[in-house]
Structures are given as C-alpha cells and as structure tokens.
C-alpha cells in the first residue's frame, strides 16, 4: 500500500519493551511516549497479520532492549511464517546466550549497537561496563548464522567519529564478518536531551566522501535509499553503510516504515507522535478488520518529516478517512518542520 506521497509501506518496526539494561546518552527510545505496558505474543502476532494485509513483509524487533523479553524466541517463531524477514536491533549484552535459540526460532539477522571498542568510552556512553559481553554476543551471532550482522555506531563528536575510532571499528567488523553502519545522532524531542545533541552531533559528510572514494562497489539500501560502500582495507573486504537522516528529504522520501510502540500505538514516523493510533481496543476485541482499517489510516496519514524539493505534493485525504487520534499521556510534542 502506498501513502499519499507514493511511498510503499513494506516494513514494520515493533518495539517490544521500553525496559533496557543500558543508559545510552544517544538513545531515542524509538520516539515513543513513556509506557510500561507491553503487548503479548498473541497481540503482536495479530498486529503483524494485519500489517501483511496492507503490504508489510519485513519486521524489525526493537525496544528498549528486546532481549529482555523472556518470550522473545516464541514471538519470533510465531511471526516468522507471515513475513519475508524478521530482524532485531539489540545492544548485544544478552546475545551470547540467545543468538542460537533466536536463529533456530527464525530470526534472520541482527543490528548490534557498538558505540565504541574502548571499554572506558563504552561505559561512559552506555552507563555499563559491558563491552566484553557485547563482543562475545557479536561473535555468537556470527556463529549462529545471523547474517548480515550490522554493527550500529552512532556518530558522536569527539567520541565515536574520530578517524582512530572509525578505523578500529572497521577492522573489528572485518574480523567478525559484519557490516559497519554509521548512524547520524537524531534529535528526537522528548527522548534526546537537546544539550547532549548539540554537544555530540557529528556531521557524516567527510566519512561519506572518504568511503565513496575508496569503494569498488556502491549500493543503495532500499530502506531510506542510504548508501552502502564496499571496499578493500588491509587485504580484506569491508562494508560501511551511512545513515544520514537529519534534515534530509531524500532519506524521508525513501522511508517504507510504520512503527508500533511497546504499548500498542501505531505511528508513521520516528520523529513525531502526531496522529498516534491506538490498536489496543481492536486487539482486545479481536477485530482484525478494524486493525487493518487502522493500518490503512496510518499509511494514508504518514508524511515525510523533512521536506524539500524532492517531496511531491501529497494526494488529498479521502473524505471517509478517520480523524487522527492521539491518546492521553502522549508527552512527546510534534517537532517543527
């Protein structure tokens, strides 16, 4: 199904919990309003089945930290038959024990947060002395056959964006057979402290230029049309993907995602909670037709957050479209365009 800007919706990003065992300074918690309630496996499966009826065929599990759900393997096994791919974003602290069971349940691949390979820097950015556990989790993911492994590195000024830091992460990614994914720090209001953002935000232009010069192969990720560079370094192949969304209309125009919060709210964009749609009444009534209708409303209502010359004028909303609903307790304001 396409939204009013002609963007196909094919991906659903599901936050399983807002609990986490790290305290990362760069965390945006998927931009969701604070909540403790979590959907059950049955409820999430019902949401996924409704999503497939409007064209979704890929699911990404996230959080908080999804591995804190004791029923994670059961959930993966339940939803895997309904989609082409199930992937997960994790901090990796518990992955050493969980990689093999999750692969057996049907998990296809993982993104693992690795802000630094320096133990002191890792602890300063995450609040936990856990780097050694994450490294073991990354190796376990490779041994279990989760492919490709993407190492998520949020570019932070003076901490993770220095040449020495990037080169060290690149060498490690080559060693473990992973892709390095460098991500621009995003100013998600209500979740990211503006003072921290101003102090740590790093431009990725130089890294992009250097990767492009070295690459013998350049591809575009269908999600957000972001560049993926493959080149040779020290006799081994390396892959770097650059995720540069801030102020980037091209990035937004290639977005194919909807998002489900941990407590059952459907949203069309990371950066705003405008027009949240509460799926819980339909879930509790086991009304699959209403769930599908709410997905259709969410698709029709989604819009690019950053706009520019590449953004077409939207098609008009159908007159019968349901009004937007924002549940009480939503403390994340709409950001200015």
How are the elements arranged and paired?
Elements (H helix, E strand, L loop, with lengths): L10 E5 L25 H12 L5 E5 L9 H8 L5 E6 L4 H11 L3 E5 L5 H8 L4 H14 L4 E7 L7 H14 L2 E6 L9 H7 L4 H10 L2 E5 L4 E8 L2 E8 L5 H5 L3 E4 L4 E3 L9 E2 L1 H5 L3 H14 L36
Parallel strand pairs: 1-2, 1-10, 2-3, 3-4, 4-5, 5-6, 6-9
Antiparallel strand pairs: 7-8, 8-9, 10-11, 11-12
Helix pairs in contact: 1-2, 1-11, 2-3, 3-5
What this model shows, in words?
- The longest helix is centred in the middle third of the chain and has 14 residues, at 131-144.
- The protein has a single domain, classed as Aldolase class I (TIM Barrel).
- Strand 7 and strand 8 form a beta hairpin.
- A 12-stranded mixed sheet has the order 7-8-9-6-5-4-3-2-1-10-11-12.
- With 337 residues, the chain is an alpha/beta fold.
- The chain is built from 11 helices and 12 strands.
- The protein is 32% helix and 19% strand.
Short note summarizing the structure:
This protein has helices at 41-52, 72-79, 95-105, 119-126, 131-144, 163-176, 194-200, 205-214, 249-253, 280-284, 288-301, and strands spanning 11-15, 58-62, 85-90, 109-113, 149-155, 179-184, 217-221, 226-233, 236-243, 257-260, 265-267, 277-278.
């Amino acid at each position: 199904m396409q939204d009013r800007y002609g963007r196909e919706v094919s991906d659903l990003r599901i936050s399983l919990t807002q609990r986490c065992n790290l305290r990362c300074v760069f965390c945006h918690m998927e931009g969701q309003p604070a909540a403790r309630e979590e959907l059950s496996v049955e409820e999430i499966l019902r949401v996924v089945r409704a999503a497939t009826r409007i064209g979704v065929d890929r699911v990404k599990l996230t959080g908080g930290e999804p591995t804190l759900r004791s029923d994670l393997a059961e959930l993966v096994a339940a939803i895997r038959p309904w989609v082409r791919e199930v992937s997960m974003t994790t901090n990796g602290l518990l992955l050493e024990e969980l990689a093999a069971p999750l692969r057996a349940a049907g998990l296809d691949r993982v993104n693992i947060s690795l802000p630094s390979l320096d133990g002191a820097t890792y602890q300063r950015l995450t609040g936990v002395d856990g780097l050694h556990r994450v490294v073991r989790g990354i190796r376990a993911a490779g041994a279990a056959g989760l492919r490709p492994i993407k190492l998520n590195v949020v570019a932070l000024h003076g901490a993770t964006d220095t040449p020495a830091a990037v080169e060290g992460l690149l060498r490690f990614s080559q060693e473990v057979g992973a892709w390095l994914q460098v991500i621009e720090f995003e100013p998600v209001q209500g979740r990211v402290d503006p003072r921290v953002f101003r102090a740590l935000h790093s431009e990725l232009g130089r890294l992009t230029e250097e990767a492009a010069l070295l690459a013998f192969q350049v591809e575009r990720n269908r999600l957000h049309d972001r560049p993926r560079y493959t080149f040779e370094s020290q006799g081994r192949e390396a892959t770097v993907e650059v995720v540069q969304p801030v102020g980037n209309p091209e990035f937004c125009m290639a977005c194919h995602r909807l998002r489900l919060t941990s407590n059952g709210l459907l949203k069309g964009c990371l950066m705003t909670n405008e027009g949240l749609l509460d799926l819980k009444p339909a879930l509790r009534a086991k009304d699959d037709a209403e769930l599908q209708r709410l997905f259709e409303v969410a698709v029709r209502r989604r819009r690019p957050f950053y706009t520019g010359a590449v953004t077409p004028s939207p098609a008009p909303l159908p007159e019968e479209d349901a009004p937007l609903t924002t549940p009480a307790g939503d403390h994340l304001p709409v950001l200015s365009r």
